[in-house]
Amino acid sequence: xxxxxxxxxxxxxxxxxxxxxxxxxxxxxxxxxxxxxxxxxxxxxxxxxxxxxxxxxxxxxxxxxxxxxxxxxxxxxxxxxxxxxxxxxxxxxxxxxxxxxxxxxxxxxxxxxxxxxxxxxxxxxxxxxxxxxxxxxxxxxxxxxxxxxxxxxxxxxxxxxxxxxxxxxxxxxxxxxxxxxxxxxxxxxxxxxxxxxxxxxxxxxxxxxxxxxxxxxxxxxxxxxxxxxxxxxxxxxxxxxxxxxxxxxxxxxxxxxxxxxxxxxxxxxxxxxxxxxxxxxxxxxxxxxxxxxxxxxxxxxxxxxxxxxxxxxxxxxxxxxxxxxxxxxxxxxxxxxxxxxxxxxxxxxxxxxxxxxxxxxxxxxxxxxxxxxxxxxxxxxxxxxxxxxxxxxxxxxxxxxxxxxxxxxxxxxxxxxxxxxxxxxxxxxxxxxxxxxxxxxxxxxxxxxxxxxxxxxxxxxxxxxxxxxxxxxxxxxxxxxxxxxxxxxxxxxxxxxxxxxxxxxxxxxxxxxxxxxxxxxxxxxxxxxxxxxx
Length: 534
Description:
The protein is an alpha+beta fold. Among the domains are: about 65-175, no CATH class; about 205-320, no CATH class; about 330-380 and about 435-515, no CATH class. The chain is built from 18 helices and twelve strands. The protein has helices at about 1-10, 35-45, 50-55, 65-75, 105-115, 130-135, 150-155, 205-215, 245-255, 270-275, 290-300, 335-365, 385-405, 410-430, 435-450, 455-475, 475-490, 510-515; strands at about 85-90, 95-100, 145, 160-165, 170-175, 220-225, 235-240, 285-290, 305-310, 315, 495, 500. The strands form three sheets. Strands 1-2-4-5-3 form a five-stranded antiparallel sheet, sandwiched between helices. Strands 6-7-9-10-8 form a five-stranded antiparallel sheet, with helices on both faces. Helix 8 packs across helix 11 (about 290-300).
């Protein structure tokens, strides 16, 4: 077939190629064999890649069984890949082939379909067999007629099955897929004392169903796009049509549709980097959640949610610094207790950023200490400089955190005891570290772990390290310079054209009051103006 295609391209429309007239059948071209080889090579390379790609996308499905098998062998490795399966059968004197991927196909549904087709007689099949199969004989809910090769292959690689009927240039794509999936369970990073215990999983359909169960709104929209030339990852953009700002929705769609990569096997994180493009800024511009109730609440507020297949996390757009500092537990308690928990959490976040640099500043600048706080500061500086102690402890905490992630659960408690008691106690007794450094570092670490957003906690840690270095280098001016640069950096940052420090900068009194105080539910009647809801 390739030789035939090459011959057809060489003499297409009877026009000469390379200035030479087309040859008549049976005649040979003049010249040496080497010249013939070079000329054939040039003719085959002449069509541009874009034109070949366009022709490949427009190719129809062959009507002969042998050609269909050859197509699958060439495109998806039938015969080489063990999970590419074809089940050939004859129904009513018509040869058929059921093409599916082993491991994705739902065998119970496909078995029922094949069982129903076994009752067909030859006189029951019309000239348009595909249409009659579609309308009369296939007892499946989601069935689609497909005439293009690429569309059929994409559907089967996504888990569907394709029924090929000989002498027909179309297939029936049956959506009977069964992905490997785990049971929804409570997310580890967003646990609550009261509330639902279900969470998102790695299967897209389960995730959107969990949100649809909570939002039975006719205006809830789920728009599906595919990202990645090779992975063809399903990405779902969710929003409430009569609440969300359509300019925001269009901006999210444009950014996602503009991603041109081979694939996003790491799912949402790679999609975030490809769309947000924050560069080296450590602060996250996207909020993640694994709780369906949190996503449903944010959709009602006017957010846009982005689901990515194979990821249990959902991106919420846009977001602010203060939104990522809130937790679902605050809304599960009474307004008074919720406000108290919010203040404690904010205090922990501030401590994780400024406690160590401020204490270090008071140690190196003793004249700043009032007499009532004269006890602050070490009596013995230790064998290692204070700045180096801080840096070593920071690295040690990071190592403990990474070790806890990779340590089996039964051994995690034992590792924590060994690290906290043996290493910490021995380090102080030998004089390498002082007690105050270990104490304040522990408080800062607790504040970091109390931050609801994992990405925000890591960014705050980087800020703490920078402030420590600036205090060691420039003392009071260094601390003031670092705090000023931090506020400026966050103030100029924007998440999908929304200010990152809102409602502090720009100032909004009502929104700032709702941020400080967790108001009763019935008094929360106005949506956040940040999202420009309708």
